[in-house]
Amino acid sequence: MEFRSVLTTCPYCAVGCNMLLQVLDDQIVSTLPAKTGPSNEGSLCIKGWNVHEFVQHQDRLTTPSLRQNDSLKAVTWDQALDHAASELTRLKDTYGPESVAFVGSARCTNEETYVFQKFARAVFGHNHVDHCARL
Questions:
Q1: Distance, CA of 52 to CA of 11 (rounded, Å)
Q2: Same structural domain, 85 and 100
Q3: What's the chain's average pLDDT?
Q4: What predicted TM-score, i.e. pTM, was given to this entire model?
């Protein structure tokens, strides 16, 4: 049996809490707060304590998919992004630029949020940008 601890950052919000993933034979078995984490100083919220449970969950999607005939078909990232871009363009062309709202996530960094709102305003052409910190 091989055991190791992997220092990482919690994926749930933008606080940036440090944690240690406890890995046994390449399977994450538990999570511990990193005592030296500058933002969490050895604490984690309930989401951080349980973050290891979703990583290896049997129902987790690990590849992009497109719905075809009421079922999901695995596709490449390029195909998925091309489809998303063409659908956004179709909605904008059909219903106007204000037909889509952009809602950001608390998981994003300030830099990601800036790029997100810039895309909505400069590329899509409207100011319907919001933020959801209720994760």
A1: 11
A2: no
A3: 89
A4: 0.65
